What we know:
Blueprint: E1 3-8, E2 18-26, E3 29-39, E4 44-45, E5 50-51, H1 58-80, H2 88-94, H3 103-116, H4 120-137, H5 149-162, H6 167-186, H7 216-223, H8 230-244, H9 250-254, E6 261-262, E7 265-269, E8 276-280, H10 283-295, H11 314-338, H12 349-358, H13 364-371, H14 376-383, H15 389-399
Antiparallel strand pairs: 1-2, 2-3, 4-5, 6-7, 7-8
Helix pairs in contact: 1-2, 3-4, 3-6, 5-6, 8-11, 8-12, 13-14
Amino acid sequence: MATVRAVLRKKKNKAGLCPIAIRITKDRKSTFVSTGQYINEKYWDNRNRAVRKSHPNSNAINNYILSKVAEANRKTLEAEMKPEYQTVSEIRNNVIVIKELDFFAVANIHLQNLKGRNKHHQYDTEFGRLKKFKEFLRQDELCFSKLTPSLLKRFEGYLLESKRRSPRTAVNYLILIRTIYNLAISEGIVDRGRYPFGKGKITIRIPESQKIGLNMDEIMKLEAANNLSEAQQKAIHVWLISFYFAGIRVGDVLKLKWSDIVDDRLHYRMDKNSKLVSLKIPEKAKKIFTIYRKLQKQNTLIFPYLENNNLSNPKEISVRTQSVTRNLNRALKRAAKQLDIKKNMSMHIARHSFGNISGDKIPIQMLQRLYRHSSVTTTIRYQANFIHKDADDALDSVVNFN
């Protein structure tokens, strides 16, 4: 009777990773069927014939291996049920060649990694993009060998022309596909030789986006606003707190606690990159905080929107934050119309508004600290959207010749 087991073979690939194979043994003779999976030898649990939990994608790979071992077992039993004697080689020939993980299987690993890092909003966004890619393909599987520059160019055209997506959105789809392909390479699932990105293939260029913030007069209208609905006034307060602290992201504003205020400073941890931030509380921000301290003395959070949610449940907070943000943006748009602010109001442009007013007045290194950017290069690129004086002066020097 033949036996079927998952094993780690010792012959490493160019990346130094060992292949996981299915070994079929009969009469002390063995043959192997590739699973297309490669891992570092230290991650293999030989006793349990599985990938150790310390591997970042252990669950996905182990589930895949189990399914392929079950498939091989079934085919082996079918072969052994034949009346004539089956050699181990003949049994192998009856086992369907086991495919490598396809693109969407690796995409699922990527999505599970996002969940594991509590990036639930990003998970939802990228899940939707992968669904759209499947709709374009009209299938749920895609071999990496078929993921060619030609296919990606057709997909990009489909997004731009058929689905009327913006060039920036189309680029986001391509970045996601590239990320998944790079994950497959790093895991030894595919070889870099067919990589569809780079010079002469698909080159990803992020189009410049227009960043427009409010000016001082418009912000003063928000600060002096009255005769608004309660929802509009609260939305303006949230927006102003974001602005006063150099554009804190709305998800972080909603999670601010009274305990985060110590010695007239605001201390909080950014949700996006877990950085610790400490900023002086401006007098204008203190006035808003005083209003909410009087309104809700027993509350843990400064703003009440997440008060009835489980703050230790990232998925719940992510879903609720998206809902609250949509409602805040609707209220801001209604308030802006009433205050005669023509620009498209949203929570996100609080950050742009800080950049617009700071312009070139603040040293770039200080702006880097205020924006909490990891690289000053990011700050330079971001702030370039709001620095116009040199270009304006140059233009005036040419056209104002009278």
